[in-house]
Specification:
alpha+beta; 2 domains; three-stranded antiparallel β-sheet; 4 helices; 41% helix
Length: 201
């Protein structure tokens, strides 16, 4: 039922170091009982306890006022000491450093500048940055915003599908990375701001 390295939820409260509901990692298996051994990081000692394998957490949807089980892969979580509560359950919490976040911001700004310059010239020419939106809107008797929504929508559709795939655990081969889709969406949102400014809003 269990394997060494599995993430498991503690079912009893016999030891303060392993509170009931906390997420632990299986360090050793027992041939005699149904429980497993987990490790106390401070002492390095193994302790036997009753657990259940973690493959989902209850999540509350306030819009529908309902609870549902969401499949997760806690074996991919790092080993950290603090936990967060999801649907009343203690779940090990990942941490994303401020330093790494700022690196992503800086990298994204560089990428957006590059995309704006290259794609702007390719689609709109050298004079009017909104030329392709204006041209297609005139040809189809629509607004620039209508054309924008179609162009931006394909990237948003890809992002939404990624969100659904994460929820279901589905692995899908993609022609463009999801990070690239996010960069494209940022470019289109800046273009949308240009349209808003042109209309004087």
């Amino acid at each position: 039922m269990f394997n060494v390295g599995d993430k498991v939820r503690v079912l009893n409260d016999d030891d303060d170091r392993f509170p009931k509901g906390s997420i632990q990692e299986v360090k050793s298996l027992s041939d005699d009982y149904d429980g497993v051994y987990v490790i106390d990081e401070s002492s390095g000692l193994l302790f036997f306890t009753d657990v259940e394998k973690v493959d989902s957490v209850p999540v509350y949807d306030p819009r529908e006022d309902t609870w549902s089980k969401v499949k997760i892969d806690l074996n991919s979580l790092p080993s950290v000491s603090d936990h967060i509560k999801i649907g009343g359950e203690l779940v090990e919490q990942k941490k994303f450093s401020h330093e790494r976040y700022q690196e992503i911001v800086n990298q994204t700004v560089e990428q957006i500048n590059e995309l704006s310059e290259k794609k702007g010239g390719e689609y709109a020419g050298d004079v009017d940055r909104l030329a392709n939106f204006r041209r297609n809107a005139k040809n189809l008797e629509l607004t620039m915003e209508d054309i924008w929504s179609v162009y931006a929508g394909k990237h948003w559709d890809a992002i939404q599908q990624y969100v659904k795939d994460v929820r279901s655990g589905k692995k899908r081969e993609r022609l463009e990375s999801i990070s690239g889709r996010a960069d494209d969406m940022i470019v289109y949102l800046i273009l949308f701001k240009a349209m808003v400014e042109e209309r004087g809003n």
